[in-house]
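Retry 2 of 3 after timeout on previous attempt. Resubmitting structure tokens to design endpoint.
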């Protein structure tokens, strides 16, 4: 093992000890939470006096093993830092979520997805083992063999069963470039049929497909973005400057081609937070010219959004314009591919939000995961929509109607944003007794929040 790797392991051990010391300093009857400056959650939370655990030593890559194609990573290491450590070896995580600020522990305990998910599943499926700080204050190693019930319940538990301290994950070889083909469709049924063919064959026009996602601008304008890794050099695009990636996808008909470095492909959505940077004026050509390039990234936009929510700036501005307040609709849902056209048609007819992101996925293994029970051997489509709509007659009216529609179309909804389920509905959808059994064993004194309390009651 190299000296830098040894130093990283020593630093990690010191960080774990500080974490445990901060846990021991909390009174025995008190609840605990992580102390962290950033979050990719998009739901309000009640103020709390719960002490924050020291995570300052849990933000780095511990070691990369190119021979074994694995990495040991601290739980709060961002994918930005993880990718920076693996790409020099020609390797990458099997699934790299879209935003640089997402942490590996966050993607596993809160789920994650990207354009390789149609062949590599979800981030937690490439985890080999996890060191978890449980609610009982113990650090245990969970794997498919040891503490298997915790290992399988950890995905989608959002820190309510414990906190990831270290994760060992699989890596896969990657090429230096990604050649992109953007296919335009004039009907949603045609887009989904093409998506199904690519997933079934793994190819487009005889060429292997490594990544696949899509964008819906309207019922009459939608695209599949098909990526093939390549070692061949050539001109590449840069969407961290004046050009905007999602706008580059659009064209009149047929196919449009593009090319990115692997690094820039992985972060193609980050510079404009997909398309949400528009809310801050960052897509206006003049503003963009003077907006420092280093601040064109998801971390900057999420900071601005937190400030907007803290001071209610959006609603105050709407009031000054004589318009009603707005409801945040920031959601990702998974719908079986056979029901996707129906859900999209319902959504476009009832929710005034566009564009919409599409990302197909299939679980890698033959077993499901109890807290997010999508079915093995079945293709789903992640449908992401992130904006605001005028408030309705009751709190969360549009979000509630989306929850009902997702259930009607046999889908599931991610829990990183606002949810309104009753406890009975929630337990039926997200683990129920399986969750409670693991909770009783690994957090017997309820030092950590309950999943329903965190996801729905916003505690």
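Retry 2 succeeded. Sequence:
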């Amino acid at each position: 093992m190299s000296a830098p790797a040894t130093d990283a392991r020593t630093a990690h051990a010191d960080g774990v000890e500080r974490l445990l010391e901060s846990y021991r300093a909390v009174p025995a009857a008190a609840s605990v939470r992580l102390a962290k400056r950033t979050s990719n959650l998009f739901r309000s939370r009640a103020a709390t006096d719960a002490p924050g655990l020291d995570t300052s030593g849990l933000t780095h890559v511990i070691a990369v093993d190119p021979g074994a194609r694995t990495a040991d990573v601290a739980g709060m290491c961002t994918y930005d830092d993880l990718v920076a450590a693996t790409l020099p070896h020609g390797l990458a995580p099997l699934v790299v979520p879209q935003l640089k600020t997402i942490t590996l522990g966050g993607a596993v305990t809160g789920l994650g997805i990207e354009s390789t998910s149609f062949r590599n599943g979800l981030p937690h499926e490439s985890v080999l083992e996890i060191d978890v700080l449980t609610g009982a204050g113990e650090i245990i190693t969970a794997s498919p063999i040891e503490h298997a019930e915790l290992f399988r319940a950890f995905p989608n538990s959002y820190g309510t069963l414990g906190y990831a301290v270290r994760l060992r994950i699989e890596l896969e070889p990657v090429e230096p470039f990604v050649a992109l083909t953007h296919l335009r469709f004039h009907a949603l049924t045609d887009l989904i049929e093409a998506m199904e063919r690519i997933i079934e064959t793994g190819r487009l026009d005889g060429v292997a497909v490594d990544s696949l996602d899509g964008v819906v601008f309207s019922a009459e304008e939608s695209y599949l973005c098909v990526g093939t890794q390549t070692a061949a050099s050539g001109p590449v695009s840069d969407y961290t400057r004046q050009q905007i990636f999602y706008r580059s996808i659009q064209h009149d008909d047929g196919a449009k081609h593009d090319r990115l470095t692997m690094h820039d492909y992985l972060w193609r959505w980050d510079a404009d937070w997909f398309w949400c940077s528009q809310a801050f004026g960052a897509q206006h050509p003049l503003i963009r010219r003077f907006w420092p390039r280093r601040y064109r990234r998801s971390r900057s936009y999420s900071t601005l959004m937190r400030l907007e929510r803290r001071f209610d700036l959006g609603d105050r501005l709407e009031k000054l314009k004589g318009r009603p307040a707005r409801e945040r609709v920031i959601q990702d849902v998974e719908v079986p591919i056979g029901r996707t056209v129906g859900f999209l048609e319902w959504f476009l007819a009832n929710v005034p939000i566009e564009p919409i992101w599409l990302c197909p996925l299939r679980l890698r293994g033959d077993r499901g995961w109890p807290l997010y029970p999508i079915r093995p051997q079945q293709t789903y489509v992640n449908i992401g929509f992130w904006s605001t709509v005028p408030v309705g007659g009751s709190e969360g009216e549009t979000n509630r109607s989306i929850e009902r529609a997702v259930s009607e179309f046999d889908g599931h909804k991610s829990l990183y944003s606002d949810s309104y389920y009753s406890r009975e509905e929630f337990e039926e959808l997200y683990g129920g007794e399986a969750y409670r059994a693991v909770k009783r064993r690994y957090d017997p004194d309820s030092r950590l929040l309950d999943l329903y309390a965190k996801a729905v009651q916003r505690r």
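Attempt log closed. The radius of gyration is 22 Å.
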